Amino acid sequence: ELKVEQNPLFLSMQEGKNYTIYCNYSTTSDRLYWYRQDPGKSLESLFVLLSNGAVKQEGRLMASLDTKARLSTLHITAAVHDLSATYFCAVDMKRYQLIWGAGTKLIIKP
Amino acid sequence: DGGITQSPKYLFRKEGQNVTLSCEQNLNHDAMYWYRQDPGQGLRLIYYSQIVNDFQKGDIAEGYSVSREKKESFPLTVTSAQKNPTAFYLCASSSTTRSSTEAFFGQGTRLTVV
Predict the structure, then answer these.
(1) Which tens digit of pLDDT belongs to each residue from B4-32?
(2) Sign, Cα dihedral of A82, A88, A92, A98
(3) Which terminus of chain A has a smaller tally of CB atoms within 10 A, N or C?
(4) How far B54 CA lies from chain A's nearest CA (Å)?
(5) B99 to chain A nearest CA, in Å?
């Protein structure tokens, strides 16, 4: 079965703290994407990871991909309130059809 | 500017009525997708198309129909057979080249049954 699992599904944290969101997937793939969704809005692309060992950073967010472990992580450093959103990972495991994780709702309290 | 345009932003449907959601892209992408999102939930695939005049059912196609007569356009019709259509509908497109299948999204259409 083609499956993408994110955890945690809900995360409430204080500003200034670090945390990691995990994305596990069930079948070989070397293409994984992270998206952000603000309440009531559409999805915005954050990171495109296209090979084993790929690491991308943008501000306080860093994403990595380990294709052997079938695992991607989204690390938040020194969180700020503006990063509050729902984060989705998606994996290209089926020809041109992305399989989506359930999303991680992140709340960052001042 | 290149992108995906969905319209309308808000749509109200009466019981028993068919409605059509528009999705247009000028990114020259071959693949287009329709997703449904319920409050607090993830994305569920309704239909997708990888080429003009061809489309495939996704996980929740019942009560929906699509067409792909032009590369740029992929309209979704929510039929009266869809008993619970109130949701946020997202259209996306992507390239089908080996390098990347990153999906780009429109701004969404919020459909409400009245």
Answers:
(1) 999 999 999 898 899 999 999 999 999 99
(2) negative
(3) N
(4) 14
(5) 8
